[in-house]
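Sample A.
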Amino acid sequence: MNPPTAITSRDNPLLKRLRLLAQDSTAYRQQGQVWLEGDHLCRALLARGHRPATALFSESFWTQAPHDLRDAAEHIVTVPDALMAGISGLESPAGVGFVWTLPVAAGLRAGQATVVLDRLQDAGNVGSILRSAAAMGFAQVLALKGTAALWSPKVLRAGMGAHFGLHLVEGLSADDLNALAVPLLVTSAHCGDLLHQTRLPWPCAWVLGHEGQGVSPALESLASRSVRITQPGGEESLNVAAAAAICLHASAVGR
C-alpha cells in the first residue's frame, strides 16, 4: 500500500473536481469519472472486480478504515473532515469515497435481456429500476434521450451498486432499438394483455415510460406486445419503479 497524500487546501484541483462530480448530475460525461461516496458503493465496486483510480478518506476515518478499503487504490488521499463534508452530497458525509474511471462507451448489445428507459425523469426511479434489472438477470439498460443521467450522483446512490454489473448505454433514440433483435414489451395502465396471464418471451426488452406520459407512441409502434398489471385495489396506476420490479420478476421466473 502506498502512503496517503494529505490534502489540506479547499482549492486543491482534485477536490474542486470531486465537488463538481458530486454536485453536478452530468459532470461525469466531461470527466469520464464518477464519485462513489460511502462504504456500500465503494465495496460494491470492489465486489465486481473493479479498482478505483483514487481513494479519498477523511482524516478521522483513515485511522480506522478496513484494509480492503485502504488497499483499494494506488492513489490514496486523506483530507480533513471539514473538506470531506464540502465534497459530500449526503446529509451525513461518509468517511470514504472512490473516484472510478468509467468504461469506454460502447453501443447496445443485440440479443440480450434489456430494460429500456423512455424519458424517465426521477433519479430515484431510475436507480431503483437498475437494481431490479440487475437482480432479475437483465444485463443491459438503455436510456433514451431525455432520461435522467444514469451515472449522476443521485442515480448512483439509488442504484446501490447495481451499475457495476450492468451494460449501460445513454442518449439513444427509438430507432436505435431496431438493432436489439429481441421482442419489445411495453407497459400500459389501461390496455394490453394481463401480465399474470401472459407467456413472456425470453430474452426480451421491457420498455418503461415517462412517469407522467408513459411510453411514447414511437416506441409503442415498435412493440410486439403491450402488457398491463392487475390492480385489484383500484388505483389508477403504479409507480414506474414498482411496475418495473413486477414485470422484470415475471420475466425472470417465467424463463
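Sample B, a different protein:
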Amino acid sequence: MNTSVNLAGVVLKNPVMEASGTFGSGMEYGEFVDLNKLGAVVTKGVANVPWPGNPTPRIAEVHGGMLNAIGLQNPGIDVFCERDIPFLKKYDTKIIVNVCGKTTEDYIEVVERLANEPVDMLEINISCPNVKEGGIAFGQDPKAVEAITKEVKRYAKQPIIMKLSPNVTDITVMAKAAEAGGADVLSLINTLTGMKIDINRQTFAIANKTGGMSGPAVKPIAVRMVYQVANAVSLPIIGMGGIATAEDALEFILAGATAVSVGTANFYNPYATLDVVKGIEDYMRSKNVEDINSLIGLVK
C-alpha cells in the first residue's frame, strides 16, 4: 500500500502535516507526536526580525472553531536557524518553513537566509498585511500575488508553496496569479476573517477586533475552494481548513488536494495528525486502494 505523495519533487511518506502556527516548530508536540510518522512538519511563521505579535487577548472560542489574532509572533530567522532547524533535523520528516513579512524585501531576506539551510520547502504566507499598500494583504490582490511569487522564486533554492487567503471574491483568480508567478505548490485555505463581541464586557473579545476563523465550521468552504482551485490550475495543492479526522482529510484529497494540513484540531487533540495518518491507511485498506494518488481529485 503506497501512501507517499509528491509535492514538486519533494516526496512525503504520507500526505499528512500540521498547519503553520498550530504546532510551534514541532518541539511543543514532540512528547505527544512521533514526528517521524508525519509526511512533513510545517513551522510557525518566520520573519526576518523578531515579531512581538498583537496585544492580548488574542484568542476566542466560537461555535465550531476559534478566532485568533496572534499576529505572527515569532523569534525571527536567526533563532529559528540556530534552534529549530537542528531540532527538526533529528527526525525523518520533511521540513516546510512558513515565511511571513510586511514587505517583499522582508520575505526575500528570509528566503535568502534559508537557501543553504537543510529545509525542504518554503510556504509563503501571503495573508500578511502589506505595509506599503496600506495594510491590504498581499494575497488579496492578484497582481501582488503574481509579483511576490516571481520575486520569491528568483531567490529561493527550495520549491515554493504559496498559501492562499480565502478572504477574496474568487480564489481561482489568486491561484492562477500564483501559478503565473511560478509557484510550485499552493496551500489553502488560510483563516477567514471573523469577529466576536463579548456582550458582558460590551467590547471586542479579541484586542485586534477581528481574528482569523479556523476549525470545523470553515471546512465546507475550504473543501469547495480546494475543488475550485484543483480544477483551475495544474499545481499540487495542500488542503487545509477544519480537518480533525481522516474523513475530513479524505474529503480534501477527493476534491483534488495532494496533501493535507491539520490545524485547530491539534489544540484539543495533540494526537490529531497521527489519528489522520492511521485513519487514511484504514480507509485505503477498507476500499482496497493500493495507491493514495489514485484518490487525488477523484470526485469531478
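Observation for Sample B: The longest strand covers residues 94-99.
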